[in-house]
Structure formats: C-alpha cells, structure tokens
Design goal:
CATH class of the largest domain: Alpha Beta
Bound molecules: flavin-adenine dinucleotide
Order of helices and strands: EHEHEHEHEEEEEEHEHEHEHEH
Structural class: alpha/beta
Number of strands: 14
Radius of gyration: 21 Å
CATH topology of the largest domain: Rossmann fold
Helix content: 25-40%
Oligomer: single chain
Number of helices: 9
CATH superfamily of the largest domain: HUPs
CATH architecture of the largest domain: 3-Layer(aba) Sandwich
C-alpha cells in the first residue's frame, strides 16, 4: 500500500495547485504510515534536480512526451499500470483542468471509487474527507471505502509540503499509444498573467464599479499589490470584462491568499467561487451588503473615493 500524488507540470514547473496537493498527500501518507510517492508528468530533464525535493520517498518522472491536451485515455491507461505496479492505495491529484477526467478514467479502468472537490481531511476518522456542498454553505464529511481510492482536491485545497530529498528517483519514457477522438487545434494565450486559479492575490470588481471606464483604477491598484484581476458574473455578461475573469459558481473557483472585492454584493453564487480565499477584503457603500458577512476586513464607502485613496496610500 502507498500514497501516490500525481501532478502535471506547466512548462516543467510545479504549479501552486500541484504543490498544495503534494503537501496534502504527504500528510495523508504520514497519518496512515504509508510510503509516499510523487509522479511528475511532463517532467523537464533540465529541472530534474528541483523535482527531487518534493517531500516524497520516491519521485517518478514521466517524460515531457507524456500525452497532454485531452489525450485522457492514453494517460489513464498508463496511470492504471503505474497504480498497480506501485501498489498504490490512495491516489491524489489537484484540480488542474484535465486531472478530474484523467483520474475518473483511470479509476474506471481499475473499478475504484473517485472523490472530487475535496477541501481537507476532516479529522474525526483518518479516512474521512470533507468537501463544500450547497455552493459552499455547508461542509460535508465523507468516508470512502475501498482498497484503492482516487481523490481530486478542490481548487486551492491542500497545504504546502515539507521539502525532503527523495530516496529514489525513477524516470519513465512514455511508451503507450495515443488514440483520442479529441484533437487540439489551437491555443489562444490570455496574456502573460497567471491563471486566476493560481493567483495568490486577486482584485475583483462588481457592478458597483459602475462601468468599464472605471477599471483603470482597479487595474492600477491590482498592479501595485501584485494581484490578478477578476470580476463578478454580471460584469462579464455586460462585456465590461472578459469571461475568463468571471469568478463564482458558474465561473472560476479561486483560492488566493487575498481576495479584494470592489463593489460586489456577495451573492451566494459569487461566494461559492471565493470561499477558499484565506483573507477577503470588501469595499462596498452598503453596510448591509452580504459580502461583509464573508469578509475578514471591510471598508464601507464609495469606491470612487476609497479606491484612489488606497492607490495613493501605496505610493
Ligand atoms: C444560476 C446562477 C449562477 C450564477 N453564477 C454566478 C457566478 O458564478 N458569479 C457571480 O458573480 N454571480 C453569479 N450569479 C449572479 C449572482 O446571483 C449576482 O447577481 C451577482 O453576483 C451580483 O454581481 P455584483 O455583486 O457585481 O452586482 P450587484 O449585486 O448589483 O452588487 C453591486 C454592489 O456594489 C455596491 N456598490 C454600488 N455602487 C458602489 C460604489 N460607488 N461604491 C461601493 N460600492 C458600490 C452595491 O452596494 C452592491 O452591493 C449567478 C446567478 C444565478 C441565478
């Protein structure tokens, strides 16, 4: 029996989500007294040294030719063999775009249960896991039975891992065939900013920003504090901001260290996307706005006056 954390790199780099999944898996392995392995897909040869310090006893590098971009069946077939070969009993991964599909496919091949959206272990039973339900209004605790279990973490879930040099570094060259009904035709880069799901700080604007012409101040503030920009759904529906910035139940689920909500009322559908944030700061002119119930810090005031003052204070 062993705990395996499976991560996919971005241009060879370990993402924030992957780091948190490694930390989560490390704790599970420690709690259960099981050997801990990390499998790094898309490993870059030049970065080999940095992969050795991921806190696991064994690090398995799967070369950069490991199929990506919707080649889910090929990845699953390969991971099925790895899971069996390494006697894995708990397979954990992060919420990266295709991981849920890859893990579901692999689990299907092995007739094992999958549990997604996991926020944390709940503590009362070392097999129990928790996830948010009813748009984040409640937390549910679940126990998953089985000799082999697959777990996909929620965005932002997990903890930073304790670095430790591995005892064993294994390299694999992907040798499976690739067959898929899906072909990637084109990739459109959205600027050079970090994806919102990876951002540590986010400044987000709602309808209270009044219009796209006022976004200059929001962007200036975000730039000063090194934050990515986001918005509520009506803002992207109105075309004030692009859809990829929309946060919430029907948009991105984010979990930054700091989420600053400017002129956002705090509807449950918006809160569903930000409840994993460590610190929420809200600025709103309405003291009764529900966002203040979710916020750690709040400023009651008109953005037209507060935002310029905040920027000035950062000079
Ligand atoms: C099925 C479904 C799914 C949805 N999914 C999402 C989702 O994923 N994400 C999402 O965001 N919404 C979603 N919504 C919409 C959601 O219900 C809210 O309507 C929306 O979040 C409100 O956006 P808002 O806070 O920007 O606007 P509003 O609710 O209009 O709030 C604007 C806020 O700005 C404040 N304000 C106004 N002027 C100023 C000023 N000058 N200074 C300071 N404050 C000011 C107001 O007091 C108010 O609180 C969904 C709705 C449904 C039905």
């Amino acid at each position: 029996m062993a705990v395996l954390c499976y991560i996919e790199t971005r241009n060879g780099e370990i993402t924030q989500g992957a780091s948190l999944a490694i930390g989560f898996s490390q704790q599970v392995a420690l709690q259960k007294g099981l050997p801990f392995m990390v499998a790094v897909a898309g490993a870059n040869d030049e970065m080999k040294n940095s992969y050795q310090n991921l806190g696991a006893e064994t690090v398995i590098l799967i070369d950069k030719d490991f199929p990506a971009d919707f080649q889910i069946a090929a990845r699953a077939a390969w991971l099925k063999n790895l899971t069996s070969e390494k006697s894995v009993s708990i397979f954990i991964t992060d919420s990266a775009t295709e991981n849920s599909a890859v893990v579901a496919y692999t689990a299907g091949l092995l007739s094992a249960p999958v549990f997604t959206g996991v926020t944390q272990g709940v503590g009362f039973d070392d097999s129990a896991l928790s996830r948010n339900i009813y748009s984040g209004k409640l937390k549910g605790g679940y126990v998953i039975d089985g000799q082999l279990r697959f777990i996909v973490l929620a965005p932002g879930a997990g903890t930073l891992f304790e670095p430790k040099m591995c005892d064993k570094l294994e390299s694999y060259i992907f040798s499976g065939g690739i067959s898929s009904n899906i072909q990637l035709l084109e990739v459109n880069e959205i600027g050079d900013t970090l994806p919102l799901t990876e951002a540590r700080r986010i400044v987000s604007g709602g309808r209270g920003m009044r219009g796209p012409e006022n976004w200059g101040a929001l962007e200036e503030f975000a730039k000063r504090i090194g934050a990515a920009t986001a918005c509520s759904r009506p803002v992207s529906d109105e075309g004030w901001r692009p859809h990829h910035e929309h946060v919430g139940q029907t948009g991105k689920i984010v979990a930054p260290e700091l989420y600053v909500a400017l002129g956002i009322s705090g509807a449950i559908q918006h809160l569903a996307g930000i409840s994993g944030s460590k610190v929420i700061v809200a600025i709103n002119k309405d003291p009764e706005a529900p966002i203040f119930e979710a916020a750690d810090y709040g400023i009651i005031g008109d953005l037209q006056q507060v935002l310029p003052k905040l920027i000035e204070a950062l000079d």
